[in-house]
């Protein structure tokens, strides 16, 4: 049975929205933060990336409700506004983490951040390769997601794929190029069931052009499109299914450094 089961929902208003939840928090005396919403946020799923950011840049944890997830990041030392390509000094940037993994968790976090007032996002995470020519340690810029999860179908119709915002994706690519970093570009297969990835699925989505598998991109792209905000997504390849067996390299130096390099490029792309 196709999703959503009640297709009329795509034409109906939701009974409550993220703004309603934030209003409830305010009524309950729970502040959202001590500072206004940042203009741009990097979404992170790996604790190691958040630890790297906190160790490398001056950071301030948001207070209130968003303090569970958000750190404001002072990237002024990376301000290349003297370089006409990367004027980041006038942007407020933050990283959001510790909200869970997978499409539903990422979609809820994105919805609440949008309701708070954030307009631009770059998602950075690990992904598993589906191809021999995309080994662990490869940096991947995502240009689309095959919707093999459930969340995206509650926002958009039944197209098999969904895409990030082209302008921000191009800015991310350009940032990687200026840094002299090699990367692959292509779609991901977004799945809810990490422990049910099968040989037939790997072969199918590889034939469809997918480079990697992840658990969030399709839902993030769908929410962003529905809410009319900008989002891009990139990955550091941490493991591979390309040989139709699982070969993990999550803790290998290239995989970990890939996240750090992507963050540095992302904050320069968020102009």
Structure explained in plain terms:
The protein has 271 residues and is of the alpha/beta class. It has one domain: Rossmann fold, CATH 3.40.50.1580. It has seven helices and eleven strands. Helix 1 (18-27) crosses helix 3 (103-116) and helix 4 packs across helix 7 (253-269). 43% of the residues are buried.
What average pLDDT do the residues reach?
A: 93
The number of helical segments is 7
Radius of gyration: 18 Å
Number of strands: 11
The named CATH superfamily = Nucleoside phosphorylase domain
The CATH topology is given as Rossmann fold
Q: Domains counted in the coordinates: how many?
A: 1
Helical content (DSSP H or I, runs of 4+): 25-40%
Strand content: 15-25%
Strand order of the largest sheet: 5-9-8-6-10
Poorly predicted ranges: 81-89
- CATH top level is Alpha Beta
Q: Overall 3D geometry?
A: globular
Terminal CA distance:
42 Å
Tell me which CATH architecture applies here: 3-Layer(aba) Sandwich
* Major beta-sheet overview: 5 strands, mixed, barrel
- SSE order in H/E notation? HEHEEEHEEEHEHEHEEH
């Amino acid at each position: 049975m196709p999703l959503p089961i009640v297709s009329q929902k795509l034409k109906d208003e939701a009974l409550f929205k993220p703004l309603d939840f934030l209003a409830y928090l305010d009524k309950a005396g729970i502040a959202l933060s001590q500072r206004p919403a940042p203009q741009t946020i990097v979404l992170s799923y790996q604790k190691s990336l958040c630890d790297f950011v906190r160790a490398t840049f001056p950071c301030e944890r948001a207070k209130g409700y968003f303090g569970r997830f958000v750190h404001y990041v002072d990237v002024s030392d990376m301000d290349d506004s003297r370089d006409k390509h990367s004027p980041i000094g006038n942007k407020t940037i933050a990283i959001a983490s510790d909200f869970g993994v997978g499409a539903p968790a990422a979609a809820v976090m994105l919805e609440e951040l949008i309701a708070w007032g954030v307009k631009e996002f770059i998602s950075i995470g690990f992904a598993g390769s589906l191809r021999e020519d995309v080994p662990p340690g490869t940096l991947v810029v995502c240009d689309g997601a095959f919707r093999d999860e459930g969340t995206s179908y509650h926002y958009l119709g039944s197209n098999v794929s969904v895409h990030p915002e082209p302008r921000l994706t191009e800015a991310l690519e350009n940032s990687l190029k200026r840094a002299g970093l090699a990367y692959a570009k292509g779609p991901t297969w977004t799945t809810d069931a990490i422990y049910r990835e099968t040989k037939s699925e790997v072969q199918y989505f590889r034939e469809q052009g997918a480079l990697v598998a992840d658990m969030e991109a399709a839902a993030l792209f769908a929410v962003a499109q529905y809410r009319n905000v900008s989002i891009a997504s990139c990955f550091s390849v941490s493991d591979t299914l390309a040989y139709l067996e699982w070969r993990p390299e999550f803790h290998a130096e290239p995989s970990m450094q890939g996240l750090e390099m992507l963050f540095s490029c992302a904050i320069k792309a968020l102009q």
